[in-house]
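User: I'll paste a sequence; please echo it back and then give the predicted structure.

Assistant: Echoing your sequence first, then the prediction.
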Amino acid sequence: MKTGGQRFWRNVSILLIGFCVLLVIVRWTLRDSRASSAVLFYVGQPIVISGLLAIAALGARRVRRRRLAIGASVAALAFAAVWAAQSFRFGGHPVPSDAHRVVVWNVMSGRFGWERVYETLESLDADVIVMVEAWEDETQRDALRSRYLEGYSATSEHAGLVIFSRSGLSRVEFDRLAGGGRYLHAEVLVDGNALGVLAVDVESDPRRFRKYPLVQLAVVAQRYRNGPLLIAGDFNTPPDSMHFAAMRSDLRNGFEMSGGGYAPTWPSFAPVIALDQIWVNAQIDAYRCWGDWTLCSDHRPVIVEFGIRAGMQN
């Protein structure tokens, strides 16, 4: 006769395996094509499926369901391998001495200390910085910027978005994205050439359908297609979302091009999903892309070293 504990673990194993089957079906069929399937698509990261299957295997072992335990264990290892293959890159290209560096970071409103945020940004030594969720007290902000980012120009904060540049800013434009999100555009000078920088923050609510802000963002990017363009921000959407298709026609994901190391950026203490990304158009060479490790925010900073292709500037 089964005890209450054995029934509990049997039921847990069956429920977890059934839920994993549902996640797999959604992830490889519907994906995030509909609002109803999108949440399951985002939750169904291979490492999450692997973890759930590992728990199911332990439960099956507790109730002496040997075959079920072995099957769940093998499946957990398989999904862990898929996760590793998708999450790690060992690419990159030789970085010329005149390359430039851009950093994007969701700083989580400085909840773990603004001074630590600015210390980290100073250490990354970027030419362009995109800050997301950069709501600051003005008095503290000015003091920290003069201490750690002296010589940088900065846009005004627009709904938590700020762009910094070592070489000045112009043509600043802010607007909302349909369906939940916002963008801030500015032009900066890179070796005397105008570079468009588009800072992005897509709403984090998983119930919001990502199609509308991402498709509109692709339309916004078209306005600046005649010059070199960087798009950097917290997309709150994994890069394998089908709604990046419109952007992929003219833009490339920096980590997919030249990534080195581990791609996921959130949550920073145990990242499983790459929400923070940098995209570039064909007029920019991304030599190297990587994520920094920090506990100053729940997001990791993403860094790209890049250059503008000769003969393709405005």
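The longest strand covers residues 181-190. Residues 230 and 280 are 5 Å apart (CA to CA).
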